[in-house]
Structures are given as structure tokens and as C-alpha cells.
Amino acid sequence: MYGKAFAPEYQGALTTLSVNSSLVDVLAAGTEQLRAAERSGSRGEAARSGLAVAEAHRRLGHVADAERAWRASYRAAREAEDLGAMAWALWSGGTLARQRGALALAWRLLGLAAELGERGGDIVVRGYSLAGMAETGRIQGDYAAVGALHEQLLAEARKRGEARHTVWALEGIAQMHRNNGAYDTAYAMFEEAAGIARRADDRRGHAWALRGLADILSARDGATERALELLSEAEATCRRMNLSSALAYNHKMRGNVLYRAGRYAQARDLYTQALDEFRTMDEPRGTALARLGLVKSLARLGRDRAKTAADLAELAGDLERIGLRHARRMVSRAQSELGIEAEPPREAVAAGVGVGGGKGSEAGR
Q1: What DSSP assignment string belongs to 221-248?
Q2: Could you report the per-residue pLDDT of 172-207, keeping only the tens digit for each?
Q3: Contact present, 328 and 319 (Cβ < 8 Å)
Q4: In which residue ranges is the amino acid composition biased (Gly residues) (predicted)?
Q5: Is residue 342 very low, low, confident or very high in pLDDT (cuts 50, 70, 90)?
């Protein structure tokens, strides 16, 4: 039913790149082709090779370089009057905005990309852009608004036999079920996604599916060691492909698994590692989630109660500003779990708290 996974964001002379190509290799090939296109004056090819450069930078966590690259790709596409290439550049920019936590901007850019894709007759970029809008709403916790869109996109991807997009949609819907407590449904969907990704050789999608399975095995069954095995398998893939963001989320999930098992010192170390990785990439959502895990672990290890309360209040305020409703509810649950009365969100906490947000509170796969 499904063919081999492909990467439609690698275009023009770069279509020979695999969905599983190392991002370092993608960046090198894209930069070389972009320079050649600029020398020859081919604006269309510059736009399409520039897209690969932008996406490689984004996935490697090079935020400023990714921002420059997608904007340059869009300008080149506009000069070439190529609506499809303009749409792809906006898709990249919208995805970067979501990763940085600028959710309103992400929604606007992705909406423009979907519109241009439809006008230009590129159904793939239209689908990817609508998927990006759905994911933006999902990470905000607005499941009622985007649940139907996820289902629509899953149906379209299944109909076209697009393995990579089917895997993405299954994982998004599974995550919503998991967050609503429907563990069995979520597990079945993550399992299907893992199977499709494996058969289609979509290693990135497979790594994300393994992460989802590990989460449920830990939360539902208390199967700590099996969950850690799956995360180790996924981590190996992330390292081979230089998937910086996925690797950081893997480490954060490993912290979750260890925390649930009562292994608080180990969880603290993993959350600290993930926090450093997210901050390096300027990824506020991951930063907030790693901070939350770290605060909880430190509290379990005997940290001062007042400092824990102050950290949670600051974190709640940061999440309110970003607009991450589900993550904000997680903070409320942490306050209840630790027996801490919720305080009004603070702009800052007293010096010496130690795990504050720092850079990026303004600012997601």
C-alpha cells in the first residue's frame, strides 16, 4: 500500500537525497548547489536548493541560519514567479516559527503556504502546510480545533499512499489520545506508525514512533526497561541522522521514564542534558518541558519547597505567554502532585533558584 518514504523538501538537483540522509550531508550538498545556482543566475534552482539548506539548518538547531535561508529561498522563488517554491519556503519559515514558539506567526505563514500551494497546484506542499497548522494547534493543546484536520490529512495521506505523511498524522493523533488518557488507542496508532515507517524506511518517523511507544509502556504498564530499550534504539537513529531536536526530546522522554520509576537522580541528569540541548537550539517548548521535569526531580530529591514553588510559578507564566495550554496543565498537575499551592504567574523569580527559563520564553518535531 505504501511506497518508500521520500523527502519532498529536497528539490531540484537535490531530489537524489534520501529522507534518511544525514543533515550534515544535506546541508553540504544544498549549500554547494545553492552557490552554483546563484552563480548561474537560476533563481528557481536557488529557491529550491535554498529550501534544503533552510531545513537542514532548522533540524540541526541553527535558528538564525535557518531564518536567513528560508527568507532567501522565498525571495528567489518570488523573483522566479514560482508559486510552489514560494509555498515551500513559507512552509519552512512557519515550521521554524513553531519550533521557536512563535505560534501565531507559525499559523500565519503555514496558512499562506497552504494557500499558495493550492494556487500553484502543488498538493504536497498544501498537505504539508495544513499538517503544520494542525501540529501547531496540537502542541498548543487545542485538540478540538485541529482533531478533525489531523483525521482529514491522515485520510488523504492513506489514499495517496504517502508513507511519511501517514506516519506523521498517525503520530499526531496518537499523541492527542495519549494526552487524553486513551493509552490503548494511542499505543495501537504509534505501533501502526512504527510499522509503516519501518517498511517505508522512514527512520525519522520510526524514531518518533518508538518514543511514543516507550512513553505509553512506561506510563500505562510501568515497563521501564522495555521503554528505555526503545528509546535507545530511537537515539541511535537520531545520532546517525544528526536529528538534534528529536534527540533532545528523546532525552527528555528518557527523563520522564526514569522519573516515573522513582529513579529521580538519573531523571535529573537526563532532564539537565535535555535542557542544555533545547536551550542551544532556542526551542522554548522543549526547554519548558525539560525545566518542568527537572523541577519535579529536584523536588523529589529534597530541594527547598519555596524554590520549587517559585520555579513552577515562573514556568506557568512562561507557558501562558507561549500559549501552550496542555503544557500549562502539566504544571498544574505537578503543583498538585508535589502538594504546592498554585501561585499567580511571576515574571521572574528570586536569584539563586537555579533552573529558570532564561532565553527564549517568547519563542516545536
Answers
A1: H--HHHHHHHHHHHHHHHHHHT-HHHHH
A2: 999 999 999 999 999 999 999 999 999 999 999 999
A3: yes
A4: 353-365
A5: low
Instruction: Tell the residue number behind the cell numbers 498537505, with chain if given.
Output: 127
Say if CB 200 and CB 164 are below 8 A apart: yes
The three cell numbers locating residue 39: 552563480
**Chain centroid, CA 359 distance in Å:** 19
Phi-psi region of 262 (alpha: psi -120 to 50; beta: other; left: phi over 0): left
pLDDT over 50 (residue 254): yes
The rounded distance, in Å, linking the Cα atoms of 170 and 188 is 10
Grid cell for residue 220: 500505562
A 10 A CB-CB count for 309 gives 19
Q: Which residue do the cell numbers 499559523 mark? A: 107
Q: pLDDT tens across 256-287, in order?
A: 999 999 999 999 999 999 999 999 988 888 99
Under a CB-based contact definition with an 8 Å cutoff, are residues 66 and 57 in contact? yes
pLDDT digits 0-9 by tens, 131-185 = 999 999 988 888 888 888 999 999 999 998 999 999 999 999 999 999 999 999 9
Burial class (CB in 10 A: 0-12, 13-18, 19+), 93: buried
CB 201 within 8 A of CB 20: yes
Spell out the residues 6+ positions from residue 197 whose beta carbon is closer than 8 angstroms to its own. Answer: 5, 163, 164, 167, 203, 205, 206, 209
CA distance 112 to 90: 7
Residues 6+ apart with CB under 8 A from 319: 288, 327, 328, 331
Cα 174 from Cα 190, distance rounded (Å): 6
Is the whole model's pTM more than 0.90, yes or no? no
CA distance 244 to 281: 8
Distance from the Cα of residue 347 to its chain's centroid: 26
Q: Which amino acid is at 280?
A: T
Cα of 345 vs its chain's centroid, Å: 26
Q: What's at 201, amino acid-wise?
A: D
Q: How far is residue 57's CA from residue 96's CA, in Å, rounded to a whole number?
A: 10
Find all residues with CB under 8 Å of 336, minimum gap 6, and list them: none
| Cα radius of gyration (the chain) | 20
Residues 284/140, Cβ–Cβ less than 8 Å: no
